[in-house]
Amino acid sequence: MRMKVALIPGDGIGPDIVAEAVKVMGAVGTKYGHKFDYSFYLAGGVAIDSVGMPLPESTLLGCQDSEAVLLGAVGGPKWDHLGGGQRPEKALLGLRSGLGLFCNLRPALLYEQLAEACPLKSELIAGGLDIMVVRELTGGIYFGERGRNDAGDSAYDTMAYATSEIDRIVRKAFDIASKRSKRLMSVDKANILETSRLWRSVVNTIAKEYPDVSVDHMYVDNAAMQLVRNPRQFDVIVTENMFGDILSDEASMITGSIGMLPSASLRSDNFGMYEPIHGSAPDIAGKDMANPIATILSVAMMLRHTFACEEEAAAIESAVGAVLDAGWRTGDIMSKGMRQIGTKEMGTLIAQKL
Ligand code: IPM
Ligand code: MG
User: Which of 1, 5, 211, 277 has its Cα between 20 and 30 A from that of 72?
Assistant: First the structure.
């Protein structure tokens, strides 16, 4: 199979980790007879430095012309002084909305081999943690009208949702829940927000079409608390854009290994953008220190969701498991008795396991 993939290494450790993901794709290609056609594009701080804007038109067009996008990370202190519309992060928002990627999947999976990195008491995580956060990604307060008054001493951001926007993300979440443990938790703030009351009613309407999935609703403040009190009560969580941003960071941290977690941003066809959950870690950029596993696991998500290559995806995931079993660790997941290696060696070992 030929697979047309746009690569956006971005800033900081982005180029380091994307290079290792490409290594692993090479190994998948050799083993299963696939051919990856790569094109590299600029986004984020590097794009600001070289062409003066975070998301050049050519990047968006190039992504639109591909079947999938693999992104490293964007941003860094070098560009922190820039105003809202010119920051590297603007590239991410532009890609999400420009490509119509309304569905963000963020699995928070605790690797048994790394259980001691989990900051929660061991009895809270006995039996493991496997939560899928389904975050709405192209609506809500991220994309609503915002501004200031003339004096600049008053500001506003707007949260708005149309039924159709809620409907399509909630359906995705039900589909995912029906293939997992058949439990769905919808998170909102329906005691305060009108968008949340609409959200809740759409969830309850769609629930009738999925009689085998049990649905609950939880307020976002309570959900934030319950995630650390008793995380195993959750399986699939569906929520709006900003709540999902916050809860997915929290969920990833309780696994203790933010350097391990991939993500997928999808729309209704097979197209998707895949990226690690972590940021650009400029302090360790180019030092062969970053953990490439989240990006490598993002390739597995790409093979699964865009190319329907389940066997290849599972092979990458088990190669990662095997390298961890053998005791190899990058600095961020290092613990006593394990063997510390750099970014490149980790990529090489995983590719070799394949
Ligand atoms: C994320 C990030 C982004 C977001 C930022 C960098 C724009 O925090 O992907 O979670 O808020 O969505
Ligand atoms: Mg975030």
Answer: 1
What single-letter amino acid sits at 341? I
Compute the distance between CA of residue 166 and CA of residue 179 in angstroms, rounded to an integer: 20
Which pLDDT belongs to residue 304? 97
Q: What is the pLDDT of residues 297-319, one digit of tens each?
A: 999 999 999 999 999 999 999 99
252 beta partners: none
Report the pLDDT value the prediction gives residue 127, as an integer from 0 to 100: 86
Pairing verdict, β 2-10 and 35-40: parallel
Helices (H), the chain: 14-32, 45-51, 57-64, 89-98, 163-179, 194-207, 220-229, 241-254, 293-305, 310-325, 343-353
Nearest-ligand number for the alpha carbon of 104: 1
Q: Ligand 1 mean position to 249 CA, how many Å? A: 10
Give dist(CA 210, CA 322) in Å, integer: 37
Sign, Cα dihedral of 322, 326, 330, 333: positive
- Nearest ligand to the C-alpha atom of residue 276: 1
Q: How many CA atoms lie less than 13 Å away from 53 in the CB half-sphere?
A: 8
Catalytic residue status for 153: no
- Residue 229 and residue 123 in contact, taking contact as beta carbons nearer than 8 Å: no
Query: From CA 262, how far away is CA 278, in angstroms rounded?
Result: 9
Q: Is the CB of 245 under 6 A from ligand 1?
A: yes
